[in-house]
Design brief:
This protein has 3 helices and 26 strands. It is mainly beta and about 475 residues long. The protein folds into 2 domains: about 160 residues, no CATH class; about 270 residues, no CATH class. A 6-stranded mixed β-sheet has the order 3-4-13-12-6-7. The protein starts with 17 loop residues before the first helix and ends with a strand.
Length: about 475
């Protein structure tokens, strides 16, 4: 069992998705916002060595020489916790990119010799690392990080809270490779969470303009060979799937399966409509049933069938949808298929579910973020609606908080009081945590629903790292029921 240490809060939920996020992960150009960092190294032509992914340069202001990004609690444009009411904190999305082209007066090097990215929020114990690209070569980005910044509580009320993300990158002199002098890029960006004034309503979440719904969407529904088919009903048997995600709003999924489908080419991926929100990702990613089993890589003999609303992901609530937040991610309040089943919870019932992680015997795991999709038509997480932290009545960590930081959030649409659809769990410490149980959830049963089985709880590790903050890719998680 770990000894009491300073916890390292490492939510690295890379929310993900589809083609745009996959390109960033594999080193392609990122479609997200990017801020090079500026500072004195920009004047030396080194500002492209390392910078901030997910940060729009237009949102950065200068306070003297300090670069600042500011957000007001529960503003959905910058506070990504999905809670439509002030909760005393902001959740920023920020990542790291290296060797980016298009930065003024800077020629990207072929690679870096050294890079580092750390984050620290005031009133949150510990400093933790922001994930870098796996290889420090070429133009590449690491995983987006959910950076939690609480407001400051004082005797006179609340005040601005803040945190910083510091980056550094170096290229050594190497005349044999044509590098005549060493290069360095050091950046520091301050994130400020402003308390929302008492009684002031939170802004409404912006939605994607309906003008982005092209007429080709309708025609693709009836064209059997279309690569952008938006209505896909698939019966899957003996399916193996792997889900890769990281904090944001979408999910990249690779599916290898035997299928019978209404589409003659079910594995075709669209390239012509990637820039259109409404036609993005209704082939491989949305065909995953929300109740299919188990861990990151699992084989199941269960036969399932899912029909995806044709306009899911356009940011507009259409027929067949219970929510639509403009993406196809399970790692936020609205699931990838834009549908959350109804549940009438049975008061007094308790359905315990234990969540555990595993890794090869010689692999030390100090931090991870996981996503547990649960069958919301069969179980209910009280009291309903989005919860950034599930109460101790229904969430029981396997370790005391003095030993390991463990937290769980129930994901549901903003403003909802009904069922959620998934639990995001976070574990973090500065040393290895024994493989095994992390926490137990206490659901309520739904009226008229069949008794759930473990295979209907799908657990995926979104991100994991060892005690030295090196990323791990062989960590899995699972759910067990008594």
């Amino acid at each position: 069992m770990p000894t009491p240490t300073t916890s390292r809060w490492a939510i690295t939920c890379r929310a993900v998705v589809l083609v745009a996020m996959c390109a960033a992960t594999l080193g392609g150009s990122s479609a997200r916002a990017y801020f090079a960092g500026g500072g004195k190294d920009a004047e030396k032509g080194n500002d492209c060595l390392i910078g901030y992914d997910g940060v729009d340069e237009g949102d950065v202001s200068l306070d003297g020489k300090k670069a600042v990004v500011q957000c007001t609690d529960c503003d959905p444009s910058c506070d990504h916790d999905g809670v439509a009411a002030p909760n005393g904190s902001c959740l920023f999305a920020v990542g790291v990119c290296i060797d980016q082209p298009g930065v003024a007066r800077c020629t990207p090097p072929a690679g870096l010799d050294k890079a580092k990215a750390t984050a620290k929020a005031k009133r949150v114990k510990g400093r933790f690392d922001v994930q870098l690209p796996q290889v420090l070569e070429g133009s590449a980005c690491g995983a987006l990080l959910d950076f939690f910044v609480p407001v400051k509580e004082t005797n006179k009320g609340t005040a601005d809270g803040s945190g910083t993300v510091e980056l550094s990158a170096k290229v050594k002199k190497n005349t044999a490779e044509g590098i005549d002098k060493a290069r360095q890029d050091v950046d520091k960006l301050t994130f400020v969470c402003v308390p929302r004034p008492e009684g002031e309503a939170c802004p409404s979440a912006s939605t994607t303009s309906t003008s982005v719904v092209p007429t080709t969407v309708t025609s693709s529904i009836t064209t059997t060979s279309s690569s952008t088919s938006t209505e896909l009903s698939t019966s899957t048997t003996s399916t193996t799937f792997t889900t890769s995600t990281s904090v944001g709003e979408t999910t990249s999924t690779t599916v290898a399966s035997t299928t019978s489908s209404t589409e003659p080419e079910p594995t075709t991926t669209t390239t012509s409509t990637i820039g259109t929100t409404t036609s993005l990702a209704t082939t491989t990613s949305t065909s995953i049933p929300t109740t299919t089993s188990s861990s990151t890589s699992t084989t199941t003999s269960t036969t399932t069938s899912t029909t995806i609303p044709p306009l899911c992901g356009n940011g507009v609530l259409d027929a067949g949808e219970t929510c639509d937040d403009g993406n196809h991610s399970d790692n936020d309040g609205c699931p990838a298929d834009c549908f959350i089943a109804d549940c009438t919870p049975i008061a007094g019932t308790v359905r315990p579910v234990t969540v555990s992680f595993s890794a090869p015997q010689n692999v030390d795991v100090a931090a991870l973020t996981l996503l547990l999709n649960y069958p919301e038509q069969q179980v209910f997480m009280p009291p309903g609606g989005p919860q950034t932290q599930i109460s101790s009545t229904y969430f029981v960590p396997a370790y005391p908080s003095s030993q390991v930081f463990i937290r769980g959030a129930d994901l549901a649409p903003a403003g909802s009081t009904g069922s959620g659809h998934a639990v995001r769990g976070v574990m973090a410490d500065s040393e290895a945590v024994p493989h095994g149980p992390i926490f137990q959830l206490k659901f309520q049963d739904c009226e008229g629903a069949a008794t759930p089985i473990a295979g209907e709880f799908n657990c995926t590790v979104l991100d994991a790292s060892d005690p030295f903050s090196n990323p791990l890719f062989n960590v899995t998680c699972s759910a067990t029921l008594p």
